[in-house]
Amino acid sequence: MKKITIAIDGFSSTGKSTLAKQLAKQLSYVYVDTGAMYRAVTWFAMQHNFIDESHFDSKALIAHLQDIKLEFQFNSELGFAEMYLNNENVEMAIRTIEVSNFVSKVAEVSEVRSKLVEQQQQMGKNKAIVMDGRDIGTVVFPDAELKIFMTASADTRAKRRYEELKERGDVVEYELVLKNVVERDYIDTHRADSPLVIAADAIEIDNSNLTREEQFQTVLELVNKTV
Ligand code: C5P
């Protein structure tokens, strides 16, 4: 069977990563969560006080980009790769609502994007990869053999995110989660560099009313038609 590149893009909390992980496991492909990379850069900016509620010193972040080393390390107990920032496991730290609140601002910075896109392209140069994000089918791998674009209503997505945060013990009001989802959608679709758009050759899946298994089977069928 030929090895392909699978690009999964879409709005926040559409279940892209759950689907991508499941798919990568089934196909024995590498899975890359590019959102984790933008989150790790945001965490770095927060740790260095380059960003908070009242300011964002993007110039300082740009000046320190060469100090950021991002790596994924596979955790065999969990069955997926975790994000490391400068050799430190930041998998938990990057999933908080605080990071979610700032990440889209950081992701607007072109210098950040080009650094991460270059690393993503390197990771995918041998194909056999499932990568999820916002610009995978449009910018990172415009030639990907299979492009999926996931959507769901903002309410459905906020509910999913709220449940995830609750499961991790993060006490957050539902309204705040919804606000974050809506704001991130706005920034992600309106930024100048690589805005979130559906690639012309992407297949759109609205999963508001689909179970995880139904989504998985739908995409698996598409994969089988492509390879
Ligand atoms: O996928 P996740 O919700 O973790 O992504 C966090 C944020 O990172 C997104 O809201 C978006 O601003 C940014 N992002 C991006 N391009 C990607 C992946 C994520 O701009 N390829």
From TrEMBL:
Q: Which GO terms describe its molecular function?
A: ATP binding; dCMP kinase activity
Organism (species): Flavobacterium agrisoli
Q: One Pfam annotation, family name?
A: Cytidylate_kin
Where can this protein be found?
Answer: Cytoplasm
Source superkingdom: Bacteria
Gene Ontology terms: biological process: nucleobase-containing small molecule interconversion; pyrimidine nucleotide metabolic process
- Gene3D superfamilies per the record? P-loop containing nucleotide triphosphate hydrolases (3.40.50.300)
Which PANTHER family does the entry mention? CYTIDYLATE KINASE, CYTIDYLATE KINASE/PANTOATE-BETA-ALANINE LIGASE
Similarity field: Belongs to the cytidylate kinase family. Type 1 subfamily.
Under the heading InterPro entries, the entry gives: Cytidylate_kin, Cytidylate_kinase_dom, P-loop_NTPase
Under which name does UniProt file this protein? Answer: Cytidylate kinase
**In what residue span(s) does the Cytidylate kinase domain sit?**
6-224
Q: Which UniProt keywords apply?
A: ATP-binding, Cytoplasm, Kinase, Nucleotide-binding, Transferase
